[in-house]
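Reviewers of the previous submission asked for a worked example of the structure-prediction workflow described in the proposal, so we include one complete record here. The input consisted solely of the amino acid sequence. No template or homolog information was supplied to the procedure at any stage.
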Amino acid sequence: MPSLTNTPQDGGQPNPQLAGLMFLQPDVIALPVFAVVMAFAAFEDFRRLVIPNLLPAILCIVWPLHFAATPSLVGALSAIGCALAVFIVGAALFARGFLGGGDVKLLTAATLWAGAAGTPSLLVLTGLLGGALTLFLLMPFGAQLAEASRAFMGPSAISANHDAAKSVPYGVAIAGAGLIVILSPHLG
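From that input alone, the workflow returned the following structure tokens.
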């Protein structure tokens, strides 16, 4: 693909004939989709303690566009490998009742987007945000605020098989960490 700037002998100034092609950059489509899907996943997990299966699926379907911005076979394989490792560990945590299935799928999809370089940051930040959220919900004020917020969002949001008092909407932490780790390199 031609460069959006002229060659160095031209001073590297923007090429006005190609400046309109910026909308063709794959991340221009992929990153907003990622942000909206993660925000919706956080909202749904907080509201109903459920992350719809469609959301991680959308992230996996759109990931090739994000990957196309900087294609590399090694990068793709390492991202897939990290996502597979996170899924296997997450499945074991799900089997023990420590994580929900939607949380595992969302974290796996976010890991795919983060790639090998961003996976440690994603996991650490998810742990920190999840711990802070858990501590907040353990406080009487935090639990009351969460309950009032869910009541404000509409009729029951939480299915009968969930105990809202003992459940943590970990998708909120996963989405927050994903947005920070994946979007921050593109914002500055």
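The helical segments are 26-48, 54-68, 73-95, 101-138, 140-152, 170-187. We consider this example representative of the routine output the project will generate in years two and three.
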